[in-house]
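User: Can you help me understand a structure? I only have the sequence.
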Amino acid sequence: MLWSCSSMCAIFKTNPEFFMQVVAGKIDVGEFVRQLANVSSLPNFQILVWLISIFAIFTSFIGFDLGLAQSWNFSLKKY
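Assistant: Let's start by predicting it. Here is the structure, written out as tokens:
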């Protein structure tokens, strides 16, 4: 939640037009991460943004897989 709020605030402060496109749902994740990485000119910050984004995607993938496996396990135990 903190990451979402801080990234949206940073985007809003640096590029309000882009923020409005995000709110309208016209921007994909890759564009959002690129814009967020460009908020600061510090290369270490840009690397941090990419690492956190990759970590978030990876953990979402793991959570989805675990939920799907549990659902299949529950469904198969019925039969």
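Now, to help you interpret it: Helices lie at 2-14, 16-24, 29-37, 43-78. Residues 43 and 62 are 29 Å apart (CA to CA). Let me know which part you'd like to focus on.
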